[in-house]
């Protein structure tokens, strides 16, 4: 299996990149854009492997294996667990980019969340892209071109990814995860083309249960009390999932810090240990906040899928429902509300999303306001 085979539903993009990997039309800066879950960073990693591989991404050689595993000396991937990527991280990357690659081909710098660069970080990156080092390639990943400064995106070649179809995702899950066709089809529909989400749903029963809890909420919003309860439940589900993701990592980082400062062996704390611990805990707190917001955001997209299904059912749109397994609830929602009302509910969800992600409104406050806006009409509360 070549490195390109790991990219789901991206045939046009692959056909555009392969000639560059072979040396035709190569440039020093690339911008990968596409909706969440479309595989922007995976595409950048596959392209990196193809650039370093003698056979343009065979998937079998040492170069391909180490690039995909994240251990290749000439490929640096920057991703953040924080809310933004700071100037210090970018300056470190720029310093490394100024060095010659250790191999005979390229040195690749991948910035996974380029839309999270601070203004200072963008300025530091812009200088490096304006004055490129020979044999250094920059690959930036962002949802849209508008998420980057015009001066940066104008110096990059654009690569646009699309959302893969449910059948393409299902086939990928059966092939790579070994799950049943029925489970793969459910995960593909429920993820709405988000590859990482589809994998989690296919692998983990707890993840599936959390999603079922969220998509069952709309028909239970029969009063202000139930709306407040639903907001609390959604926030609690997000915190639970985020803590499950970060708790082991937090403990490992703390153990590594203790070991580095000799706290375990000597039984006492050196003078420099407290500032280092404080810095670590601050970073972990920021990461935990980001994780909660990410999980809440995913839950909001699951809610949107329910109202989208209700609209599709009401207007007789062709195609399968995203939430086919709760068709009864969807029919109830469609029967008790007009498509216009469900569109306004979708707007309320996106407004809450914007308040949390863009304006830093406390998650519980935004969720309570949103749930109140999603409340069922008086006549349907039976």
When the domains are counted, the total is: 3
Helical coverage, percent range? 55-70%
Distance between the termini: 55 Å
The H-and-E topology, N to C, reads as: HEHHEHEHEHEHHHHHHHHHH
Number of strands: 5
Strand order of the largest sheet: 2-3-4-1-5
Q: Supply Rg.
A: 23 Å
Percent strand equals 5-15%
Mean pLDDT over the full residue set: 91
Number of H/I helices: 16
Structural class: alpha/beta
Spans of at least 5 consecutive residues with low confidence: none
Most strands sheet: 5 strands, parallel
Describe the global form.
globular
Describe the structure.
A five-stranded parallel sheet has the order 2-3-4-1-5, with helices on both faces. Helix 8 packs across helix 9 and helix 13 (273-315) crosses helix 14. It folds into three domains: 3-160, 3-Layer(aba) Sandwich (Rossmann fold); 166-203; 220-380, no CATH class. The protein has helices spanning 11-21, 40-52, 62-69, 87-97, 119-130, 150-153, 166-177, 181-191, 195-203, 205-215, 224-260, 263-266, 273-315, 327-336, 339-357, 363-373, and strands at 29-33, 75-78, 107-111, 136-142, 157-160. It is built from 16 helices and five strands. 59% of the residues lie in helices and 7% in strands. The radius of gyration is 23 Å and the shape is globular. It has 382 residues and is α/β, with parallel strands linked by helices.
């Amino acid at each position: 299996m070549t490195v390109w085979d790991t990219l789901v539903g991206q045939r046009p993009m692959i056909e555009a990149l392969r000639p560059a990997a072979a040396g035709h039309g190569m440039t020093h800066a690339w911008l990968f854009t596409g909706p969440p879950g479309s595989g922007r960073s995976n595409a950048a990693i596959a392209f990196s492997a193809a650039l370093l591989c003698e056979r343009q991404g065979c998937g079998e050689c040492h170069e391909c294996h180490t690039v995909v595993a994240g251990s290749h000396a000439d490929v640096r991937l920057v991703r953040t667990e924080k809310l933004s990527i700071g100037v210090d991280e970018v300056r470190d990357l720029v310093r490394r980019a100024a060095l010659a690659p250790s191999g005979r081909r390229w040195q690749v710098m991948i910035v996974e969340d380029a839309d999270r660069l601070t203004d200072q970080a963008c300025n530091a990156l812009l200088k490096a892209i304006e004055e490129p080092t020979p044999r250094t390639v920059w690959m930036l990943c962002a949802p849209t071109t508008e998420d980057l400064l015009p001066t940066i995106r104008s110096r990059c070649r654009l690569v646009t990814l699309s959302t893969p179809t449910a059948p393409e995702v299902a086939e990928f899950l059966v092939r790579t995860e070994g799950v049943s066709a029925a489970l793969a089809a459910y995960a593909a529909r429920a993820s709405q083309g988000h590859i990482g989400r589809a994998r989690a749903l296919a692998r983990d029963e707890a993840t599936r249960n959390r999603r079922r809890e969220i998509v069952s909420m709309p028909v239970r919003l029969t009063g202000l009390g139930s709306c407040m309860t639903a907001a609390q439940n959604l926030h609690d589900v997000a915190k639970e999932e985020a803590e499950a993701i970060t708790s082991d990592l937090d403990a490992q980082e703390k153990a590594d810090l203790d070991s580095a400062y000799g706290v375990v062996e000597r039984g006492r704390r050196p003078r420099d240990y407290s500032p280092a611990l404080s810095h670590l805990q601050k970073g972990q707190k920021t990461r935990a906040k980001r994780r909660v917001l990410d999980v809440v955001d995913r839950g909001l997209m699951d809610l949107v899928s329910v109202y989208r299904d209700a609209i599709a059912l009401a207007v007789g749109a062709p195609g399968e429902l995203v939430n086919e397994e709760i068709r009864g609830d969807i029919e109830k929602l469609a029967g008790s509300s007009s498509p216009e009302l469900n569109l306004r509910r979708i707007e309320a969800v996106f407004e809450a999303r914007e308040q949390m992600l863009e304006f830093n409104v406390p998650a519980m406050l935004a969720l309570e306001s949103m749930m109140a806006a999603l409340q069922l009409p008086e006549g349907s509360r039976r």
